[in-house]
Amino acid sequence: MRRLTALATAAATLATLGLTALGGPGAPSAYAVPGVRATDGCVRSVPEPGTTEPVDICFTVFRPAGAGARHRVPMILSSHGWGGSRTTDPAAVSAFTDAGYGVLSFDQRGWGDSGGHAHVEAPAFEGHDVRRLVRRVSRMRWVQQDRKGDPRLGAIGGSYGGGYQFLGAFESLRTKGRPVFDALAPQITWNDLSSSLAPEGVVRTEWALLLSAASVPDDALPPNVYKALLEGAALGEWPDGSVPGTEDMVSFMERNGPAWHVSKGRRLDIPVLFGQGTTDGLFPLQEGLENWRTALTPRARRDSIFVGYNGGHVLPAVLPMGVSITSDPCSAALAGGDFEQLTIRFFDEQLRGRRTGLGGYGRLHVATPTDGCLTTRSERPNHSVEIGTVATSAAAGVPVGTLVAEGPVTVAGSAYLTADVTSVGVENRAFYGLAIGTSPLNARLVQNNVLPLREPLPVAGERRRIPLPAVGVDVPAGQNLYLLASPFSETFVGMGSRTPGAILLEDTVVHLRRTLLERP
């Protein structure tokens, strides 16, 4: 019952993942914001496959007090998380309009008052939608313009509302040779959809079911995507079309994220304020670190800030046991407030050229499970620890902890294993993550996440590189850092081994980033 309640709660809150509130055209404001003018509208975008009728993409524009042809202001695009819709409430964006920014909040394709189906931020559909919205903004006489068709533009939003930001910037770079966005502030979003929804082809079952369920009320998903998410949850493998009658999600989602653009040699040369959840079980910390490392030019990283906070897409972690904390100590350390306040100061500097005293540029700031903030200049592993043999039963048994390091030790960034793998079964799987405790018996996952090792066929002594969840943790004296190996995971419920047996790791080496404490 506890699990069903958690799933129901998560499904209900998917709509609010992001920075915008819910509402529809004409929805009453909680209270009026003096001087702010709200206007509804729609642009017409490309038709759905097999049709000829253009699709309406609907929005609400909030014009701040004093903005006009003689006093032009930057515009902030805002959009919602999966299952949500745009805000029509001026109070919900008052922090930005009070700071003198215009805001355009829009319903993404398939959601709210917009038409069509959600193609999960595909360049051929949502890419066109964002470009049409930018074109509309470029014609608003009260919005600051850098050149014809190029407004001074920032963007906010989390989860799916972060996906459109990278899509819009990369698509402008692809089609025009420059990103029309001048600064981004994406939160809890992805680098590669297939790798986040199904790392190593092993489906994050709970999230596949929740994303499917959230799309039903709006009939948002194309039928083949809805079918594929259910297939993945039922079969335990990400559908790639290799099984007759199943969908091919690998091809469908190939272009739907920064990873594809990066593979084509594109990098964004604009400042980005990253917000990523350290305890996020859908788009984990590593997804944000991959975007930081690969999606930006070196110059852009120098003008960017990465914040990892405790939160995001979170479900209770009991098997294996994780932590339960929601906090954002790094935004507080950097800006004296929450991520929204940090965003406004970031935009003031990057869109307006104002000096606000904001620091932390060019570095990663990651929250710890004890509400601390670790700062590092790189996320790449710089330290290796040999831990020998790690044995994991397949399909049954308890998580096994292996000592990595005694405290005090500070770790922040990416991590992985290298090991000689032996597995006698077919479709054997095990799940690995870093944990802290005073002994292997009470060790808890640092930030709720594990990643799978999948061996489709028997292997004997094959050297493997096994990803681990990225972490930020300050292990105190008296506690230890462990590698936790488990035959199962709640996030990947039902995705354990298909045959009995064991997975044996020999000559195992843990690669992680040890760091000295820095001031944010």
From TrEMBL:
Q: Which residues form the signal peptide?
A: 1-32
Kindly give the Gene3D superfamilies that the UniProt entry links to this protein.
alpha/beta hydrolase
Q: Which family does it belong to?
A: Belongs to the AB hydrolase superfamily.
Query: PANTHER family given for it?
Result: DIENELACTONE HYDROLASE DOMAIN-CONTAINING PROTEIN-RELATED (PTHR22946), POLYKETIDE TRANSFERASE AF380 (PTHR22946:SF9)
List the protein's name: X-Pro dipeptidyl-peptidase (S15 family)
Task: Specify the Xaa-Pro dipeptidyl-peptidase-like domain's residue ranges.
Answer: 59-299
GO MF terms here are: carboxylic ester hydrolase activity
Record's keyword terms, sorted = Hydrolase, Signal
